[in-house]
Amino acid sequence: MNVHKAKAFGAEAPDADLKELSINRREVTPHDVEIEILYCGICHSDLHAVHNDWGATTYPIVPGHEIVGRITKIGESVTKFQVGDLAGVGCIVDSCRECEYCHNGDEQFCEKGWTVVFNSFDRKYGAITYGGFSENIVVDENYVVRVPENLDLPSAAPILCAGITVYSPLKHWKAGAGKNVGIIGIGGLGHMAIKISKAMGAYVTVYTTSQAKADDARRLGADNVVLSTDAEQMKTCPKQDMILDTVSAKHNLNTYIDLLKVDGSLVMVGLPAEPLEIGAGNVVHGRKSFSGSNIGGIAETQEVLDFCAKHNITADIELIEINEVNNAFERLEKGDVKYRFVIDMTSLKKR
After folding, report:
1. Statement to judge: residues 149 and 43 lie in one domain
2. Residues 259 and 304 in one domain
3. What is the pLDDT of residue 162?
């Protein structure tokens, strides 16, 4: 496989700062596009992966899976894109393409396992993948999405992960007019969930432990805000058709299962490192369910980008340069961001 060198920012150990690295990118093959990366969001899972919190990190690691850029080169067999097109890359850069889930557009459930944009073994090319904290990336056209021109590009980058992660379950559980949708947590995922569920027509209730975030939830479009530390507010709030749980720390799920209507579902999209307990009686009474959802397929990722373009939805971001990334990681660990850091990747070229 022919390769070229690319500038990137990554870590060489769990406790090491991110720094400039030189990585290999494959040269464009017939179905590939090469994308100059303009912006890349920082997700909490980037932080977990860099710190090896899940125990599967291969170093050096170059994180980043909320990628927006412009196509600079295409393979001879590419039909979906042209040089100059705005394009996005999320979590998935390949899958088996043969199982029922790949055929149904649910590549995130690929039976043989999908290839993650970073820190994943690329079975086809025999190398570890590197993510969006880089000047460019080469991806098969079938795993690239088109970014609508009317979206603000830095603020659109988080749609590639935060946006699709909440859009997919909201769509699956039929959020819309006449439905009560609860959202736990107002962070990178939660703030996008408020905007998207509201645009779908749902009555949106946000649960938070912070009065300051309660005020911000209303600004973001929530119809109702409940302080989860206030027993009276929790007791009197409306029952929910579904509750989307975006929290990645240990918390009491049973409190929220109690707030579901009959046949309601608590849907987990956060990724707490510790196991969470559920009382059997809480789900048996009312035929309730505890469910989960994981990003979305390529077609659905395109769908959420188009939905956001139609409804003028983007993330609330703090735009930073690449030399600020270690400070951003420290702040993200403390929850000190409203609500997504996005890196101006053109700043890497200026180093």
Report:
1. yes
2. no
3. 96
d(CA 344, CA 322): 7
Q: From the CB of residue 315, how many other CB atoms can be counted at a distance below 10 Å?
A: 23
What phi-psi label fits residue 126: left (phi over 0), alpha (psi between -120 and 50 degrees) or beta?
Answer: left
Residue 263: exposure state from Cβ atoms within 10 A (0-12, 13-18, ≥19): exposed
Helices 162-172 and 188-199: crossing angle in degrees, nearest 10, is 40
Question: Do both 198 and 266 map to the same domain?
Answer: yes
Report the alpha-carbon distance of residue 216 to residue 210 in Å, rounded. 10
- 96 and 211 housed in the same domain: no
Low-confidence ranges of the chain (pLDDT < 70): none
d(CA 122, CA 140): 12
Distance of alpha carbon 178 from alpha carbon 33, whole angstroms = 43
Residue ranges making up the domain that contains 278 = 162-292
263 and 323 co-located in one domain: no
**Dihedral sign from CA coordinates of 235, 237, 239, 245:** negative
Examine the domain organization and report whether 153 and 197 are in the same domain: no
What is the C-alpha separation between 64 and 299, in angstroms, rounded? 20
SS3 state of residue 62 = coil
Contact indicator for 192, 166 with CB cutoff of 8 Å = yes
For position 177, what pLDDT does the model report? Answer: 97
Instruction: Give pLDDT, residue 268.
Output: 96
Residue type, 321: E
The CATH number that applies at residue 256 is 3.40.50.720
Q: What is the DSSP string of 304-327?
A: HHHHHHHHT----EEEEEGGGHHH
**pTM reported for the whole predicted model:** 0.94
Total domains present in the chain:
2
pLDDT value, residue 349: 83
